[in-house]
Amino acid sequence: MPFVTGPKEKKSRALGENLFLKAERSASPKSAMIRRPYPPGMHGKRRRNISEFGTQLKEKQKIKLFYGLENKQIKRYAEAARKSQKLSAPEVLFRLLEMRIDNALYQSGIAVSRSIARQMISHGHLALKGRKVNIPSISLKIGDEVSVVESSKSKNLFEGMAERFKKRETPTWLQVDAGKLSFKVVAFPSLDEAKTNFNLPLVIEYFSR
């Protein structure tokens, strides 16, 4: 799975959305998106007319950068969401994106970013229901418990966890045990509680072409 490369805040500015790609810095006054909330370049402050397709593409790019995914992965999720008969397609797409193990690890507060979460998983520092895993794209289910493997808890990567948990607001669909460095999926993530400003119907339309 590819990591977001290049100047991350520049990518956020180009899309007109703070995607918080640089962990804590993105929420600080030092953030380039806060200091210069317009696209980079000499004509960045000018308003641009965007076509319907361009708007859909922009929303897809936001999802791609925010979750650190490839186009083919988003397409697979969008197609699965479109086939759903019980829930709205945007709701299903949101669940599929949020319930990836790498995203859940970040949302729990154990990882400071999704890219770090993917590294933690790929390097074998995490266990799902007691079994070590190394695939960041695993889809979690209600009842699944993810924990840092015992042999990894002493590594520098997991230092300062107590302070990190204090700063992070955990979503209601996750139950975190700070002492055990673990979390459990206790509900489905709800689109109503989403803190992102993505237009998921446009993402689904983009992949319906």
Fold blueprint:
Blueprint: H1 8-15, H2 32-35, H3 52-67, H4 71-82, H5 89-98, H6 101-108, H7 114-122, E1 126-128, E2 131-133, E3 145-148, H8 161-167, E4 174-177, E5 182-185, H9 200-206
Antiparallel strand pairs: 1-2, 1-3, 3-5, 4-5
Helix pairs in contact: 3-9, 4-5, 6-7
The helix content is 25-40%
Mean pLDDT: 86
Strand order in the largest sheet: 2-1-3-5-4
Fill in the CATH topology of the domain at 100-185: Structural Genomics Hypothetical 15.5 Kd Protein In mrcA-pckA Intergenic Region, Chain A
Query: What coarse outline follows from CA principal-axis ratios?
Result: globular
Description:
The chain has 209 residues and is of the alpha+beta class. Among the domains are: 49 residues, Ribosomal protein S4/S9, N-terminal domain (Ribosomal Protein S4 Delta 41, Chain A, domain 1), CATH 1.10.1050.10; 86 residues, RNA-binding S4 domain (Structural Genomics Hypothetical 15.5 Kd Protein In mrcA-pckA Intergenic Region, Chain A, Roll), CATH 3.10.290. Helices cover 39% and strands 9% of the residues. The protein is built from nine helices and five strands. It has a five-stranded antiparallel β-sheet with strand order 2-1-3-5-4, covered by helices on one side. Helix 3 packs across helix 9, helix 4 crosses helix 5 and helix 6 packs across helix 7. It is globular.
